[in-house]
Amino acid sequence: MRNNAWMQIGAYALLALAIAASALAFACLRVLDTASIPGTAPGYRYYTLGVMRSTGPSFAISSATLQALQGNWADGLRAGMAMSDQGFQVRTPAQSGMGHVARGELVSGAYLEALRPKLRAGRLLEPVDMNACLPVAVISSALARALYDSPAAAVGRSLMLASKGMPPGMVVRVVGVLAAGFHGAYGVRDTEIWLPMSLAPAINHMPSTACTAKSAHAGGTTFSTFSVIGPPAVLSAPAEVAPAQLTTLLGNAWQHLPAAARGKDQQGLVVSAPFSLSPQARLQNARRTTLYLALSLAALVLATINVFTLRWLALVRRRHVLQLERVLGATRAFLRRRYVLRTAALALALLLASAALSALDYWALHALTGHDSALWASLSLPALAGELAWVLPLLLLIVVLAEALPLLVLLQRERIDGGSRVALSRADRGIGIGVLVAEVLLAAVMSCAAAWALHYAWQQRHADLGMLRAPASVVAIARKPGGPDTVSFTVNQSSAETAQGLLLRALRAALTSALPGHELALGPVPGNGLMTSPDSYTAGRRATSAMSMSASPQWLYAASAALLAGNDFNAAHPDPKAVLIDARTARALFGSVRGAVGQTLRSGMPPSTLRVIGVVAPLYLQGPGHDAEQVVIDDARTGAPYFPMIGGRLLIRPRIEAAQQARVRAALDAVLQRQAPTLQVTRIESSQRLLARLTRPQTRQAQVFLAIALFAWAIALSGVAAHLRLYLAMRRRLAAIRSALGAGPRRLYGEVLGGTLVLALAGIVLSLLVAPWLAQQFALLSGAQVAAFGVATWIALAVLLLAVFTVAHFPARRAARAEPAESLHEL
Q: What is the DSSP letter of 601?
């Protein structure tokens, strides 16, 4: 009985977890499908506007296209976009000093008209403000109170502003004040000012003559209208507009758009609902959440059946107690009332446990996705709490009714004061078989997914990036906080060597003094986030695009990168024409790796002729799971057009131990303080830690699938144990009779264990039938191509079958060893 109590506790815990997972998945899906923009007017739906291309929908629409569409929208439809600025310095003309720092948005089209925020005073920005380059602004009520004491007093007043860190750029006139709670479509909390996008050149002191403001208040300042592509555009439509009607309206607006305003390969307008900063990522997250919801609901059904089975087993084992209570005068009404009260108490406990587990699941989701993910940006705690407030009780009510009503019927109709049947009915056996097969199928499916995720994460963790094959350390250098954006040197440049070349030599000398036997070099490192735009390179009639990078001598050794042909840079004599290229670039320009050595190529920006001295193996600079980058590497000592030490591009080999990092950091910081005082060392990490950081998404994905697989295993194995216990309890008399008639323990053990394994094999076979579809879904969710019938699949299924054997072994052995007389005394 004690084992049965622990099994019931475990089953209820799994049921609470299944309820929490289902409720959270459903709430996430609801939030993703019905996300709203805070502070906007009710009664409207908000979409991300894009264009259809031959390759599919693209949500990178230009502001010029939006401007051209303004006169084509039907009544009620509005569209616009905004470009977020890092911050403005704003003050009134009467104020002096730096003024107030406020984040702003440069808007185009009917951005504010589309969002329809509540006005406290004045009006919203309109498309005419953009077209005429009017120096006007809309501000928040908080900024109005800070500068003008009240929103009403701000309308019509002048405001001086400039981009942060620059001198005052222009004077604008406040035409409207928005109510609190609105922060724009992009959700930046401290957005306080909205300006026409056409004012950007004047604010940043950019010369332009394309657009001159007509207002005398501007003092004849000239502005430039220009187009930007990238920020997602928002389209608003009345809630009563059906999707089919919206598609027709979009088609009509596109048909009236002049051909000159249409971009190349643009075939029409498309929308994604609801509005999202990353529509493709939101769609991917919605698809992933739908799959998780389906899995959690399947787990919920099976967990409910397991609890029902265990409660039925408890009633079967307590039938003698029930008989005794009936003899002592207990009525069926009393038994039913007691059962209902116990069920209500249990439901309350399940509700509290499910709510607590939902909170834990929420913070686990936070830890797995991070604040920078598109999914987490949509899943605010208040939005999820509002959905969970009704989803959790509803799911719990369904579960309790599904689990309690059959047992109430059993108490009403079954004879609890007499004997029970010797054998189970065919319907009972069929239901039990179906449930066991379904539980093993769920466990098998999730076991395969977890095995694939683990295998993929292991492959990515041990992927060959073309470098970092030997342990090394990576040093990150950055500008000091609050300092200038430029890099200043304080070195004597009497020699022909560049300032950064002298700095690199000093850093190497400092390292050698602190740690003899270690080598420091500068060069490309995977995942440092400083990928440049590709440049064009030609060799004869052949051309290709490649990243321009810089490296120092000994980078090949420090990065443990393979030199396939040629030589490294000359350590004594820097050559501004010498370059290293990767194997892909060599084949693209010269046809082979060895044939590239000694050849010349021309670069486009700036135009120059370069000589190939060596070819390195392909470099996967964006990390595992990405294609190799084509690179052209020059000598960092000859003067790159940018400063190449910013970020994690310094390598030290052998790896620096943790106890040595403080000494090395102090030595390098001392050199920087003398020769480049605006720089500092920010981080020293091992190459192993760098690779672990690069593969963190795959590792997190494997952890998620492993957790789901373990959850499915727990449900399946506890279900196998529960159904076996109930099956053996219901067939106890039959087993005793067969044992008394001569059936040996080995035969009884084989029948129970063999029957369980056959059902488990049936579930595994069904999982193999859906394995190709499952592998396709896994590829869509993770981007990993997996073999549906690979080694990982067979290992996962074999381990699952072994677990089922272990769970079934003990009840089967206990049933085979039972004494016949102990069971026959009930006859």
A: E
Q: CA dihedral defined by 304, 306, 307, 309, rounded to 10 degrees?
A: 120
> What is the chain's alpha carbon radius of gyration, rounded to the nearest angstrom?
35
**What would the pLDDT profile of 407-448 be if each residue is shown by its tens digit?**
665 555 444 444 444 444 566 567 777 878 888 888 888 888
* Residue 644: cis peptide before it, omega within 30 degrees of 0: no
Is residue 396 exposed (0-12), middle (13-18) or buried (19+ Cβ within 10 Å)?
buried
Q: What are 648's two structure tokens?
A: 């994690």
How many whole angstroms separate alpha carbon 237 and alpha carbon 622?
A: 40
Tell me the longest C-alpha to C-alpha distance in the chain: 111
Three-state SS across 657-684? CHHHHHHHHHHHHHHHHHHCCCEEEEEE
- Classify strands 268-272 and 608-616 as parallel, antiparallel or unpaired: unpaired
Per DSSP, which regions of 499-553 are E strands?
Answer: 519-522, 535-539, 542-551
DSSP 496: S
Q: How far is CA 721 from the centre of its chain?
A: 37
Tokens (6 digits) for 660 = 């040595």
Beta strands 608-616; 578-582: pairing state:
parallel
- Cα–Cα distance for residue pair 733/316, rounded to 1 Å: 13
The pLDDT of residue 425 is 56
Q: In what order do the strands lie in the sheet with 647-653?
A: 519-522, 647-653, 473-479, 679-686
How many CA within 13 A on the CB side of residue 280?
A: 7
Planar angle of CA 824, 826, 827, nearest 5 degrees? 70
What distance lies between CA 559 and its chain's CA centroid?
30
DSSP character string of 17-78: HHHHHHHHHHHHHHHHHS---TTPPSSEEEEEEEEEETTEEE---BHHHHHHHGGGPPTT-E
In three-state secondary structure terms, 222 is: strand
Q: By three-state DSSP, how is residue 556 classified?
A: helix
Measured CA angle at 60 (ends 59, 62), to 5 deg: 125
pLDDT in tens, 264-310: 777 888 888 888 877 877 777 777 778 788 888 888 888 887 777 77
Helices 791-817 + 696-730 axis angle, to 10: 30
Closest CA to 684 of 437, 515, 505: 515
- Asked whether the beta carbons of 729 and 317 are under 8 A apart, the reply is yes
pLDDT, mean of residues 542-553: 86
Taking CA 188 as the corner, what is the angle to CA 186 and CA 192, rounded to the nearest 5 degrees?
A: 110
Residue 361 CB neighbour total at 10 angstroms: 18
Residue 553: phi and psi, rounded to 5, are -55, 150
> How far is the first Cα of the chain from the last one, in angstroms, to the nearest whole number?
22
- Residue scoring higher pLDDT (407 or 511): 511
- DSSP H or E segment with residue 752: helix 745-769
Answer yes or no: are the C-beta atoms of 578 and 588 closer than 8 Å: no
Q: With contact defined as beta carbons under 8 Å apart, do 210 and 225 qualify?
A: yes
Strand partners for 631? 547
